[in-house]
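Researcher: Here's the sequence for the chain we discussed earlier.
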Amino acid sequence: MLVRGRYRCSKFARSRFRWPGIDCGRHHDSRLQARHLLRCSSLPRYRGPRRSHAVPHSPTPDLDLLRASAPPIPQRLAASACGLVSQFRVSARKAFVKTCRIYRFGLCAVGSAAVVLGQTGCATPQLDAPDVSRMMANATGEPLIEFRTSGGTVDDSDVFSGDLLLGDAVARALRSSPEVQTALARAAVARAEAEQSRLFPNPIVSVGLRFPQGSGKPIIDVGLAADLIALLQRPGRISAGDNRLRASSAEAVSAALDVVSKVQDRYAAVQAFDALVPILEERRRINSRLLNLAQARLQAGETSRLDVTIAQAQQVDLEVEISDRLLERRNARLELARLIGRPSGKIDWTLAAFQPPQSRTTPETDWIAAAMRSRPEIQVRNFELAALGADVKLTKLSVFEASGVGVDSERDGDWSVGPAFNGPIPIFDWGQARRDAAKARVIEARHELIRVGREIIQDVRTAYGVYESSLASLVRVRDELIPLEQQRRDQAEAAYKAGQTDITTLVLAEQDLQAARARLIELQQRAAAASIGLERAVGGRVAAASIAPNATAGRAVNVGSKVPVATSNPTTRDFNK
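Model: Thanks. This is the structure I predict for it:
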């Protein structure tokens, strides 16, 4: 006998589960059909429908009839899922409350363990970040450089025209140099990494939910752990991060010194070309006059065709030299425009008059000692070596890097809470490869430090030798060659006025005198470049001034008497002014 009954799902299930042709809230035909539906399903058994009145037991019906009248498989699954969802809601709510309590307990426990393990007998050192802009200013002797977070533009917005002094050029180059800004960005990255090394690792929470086969409450596993090795390695990571930050700051100082050296060198080159072009123009005028005299004498029958050919060849060679010098001057101005941040701007600035550098009497050994003490490249290698030494100490615990300590809990009927530890078993990997690699990096850094030190000594001695040689040649040309050429020119002029020689002798003497003056300008430019290179080799203008107080760090300083300036008339020119 079949009795009408109800088979209902919860409101939660009815609102979230919809199968075609299935209404979880409608009345089914009989209680017996529901029992047979659950018996045929492989899912956990549903506890039974809600009934309005008691139902007596019925005799066992025919199985064939029940199979024929049983709902299809989707209806079975839907009914079973409705029951599971209702049961899961209650279990999940209780598990969430328990989990929150265990999480608070575990978080306090892990936090306390982190403080104890992280401090290990000493307080966390505060980050003493170096002021990179101040370090650059101290090394270059220029104002502070601002770190710009925006990329900027190709051409600097600071428009200027007219005179361009060396100090203004250096300041503009440092302010707009992408190399300096890139070095400052790398220093900011190293600072962020140093700050990161001071932070405690975040705790790791794990939640597991397992459903037993058949009926019964779900089993809940909750765990809270912290990286134990990260806590123990924290002091070593702080040391390595601080040393890398100092190395990055020293690299930024080196980049600023390179920019200053390039600007000074290009400024001196442009000055030299500006002073050399008028002398070449005077030589061209004199050579043209000599060519006209040779052609006049050839027409008068006083000389051969060979003199005219020689004069023409000299004229062509001089024109080529003038063209090359003008091109070099333009290229030097373009490079200087790029360095000061105006690559598309005008290059017709008026520079200060070119003057040779001051003589230096400091011995070579003092320059070498100052370079080994002040060069930022040496400091970079020392800081990197210290950071790698800290990395070697960190490798002692690298085999246990996956270890963790924390609290685990489980609900299997009742809740149970207790401490937990997990870590690798060092059977195959004892960390020996990592230690060997770290030690090899230290050995590499030591040899790199020796290489850099030798290169610095070579740079100082090379720059010092070039400077001394250029200065000696400059003094020789200025004090011996130019006076002799001036004396020869005066004697030729006196003989020409007395009628003893023709104008050719005077013109040749004038041409040789202008060639000697052009040679003097080239030697002055070479000496200035050598002085700038010597200052860069020793660690900048401030480092050079510390061992040579009278030095002006590559700025224009007069040496001896003035270089005579040619006028337009060779017969009335006064070279003593």
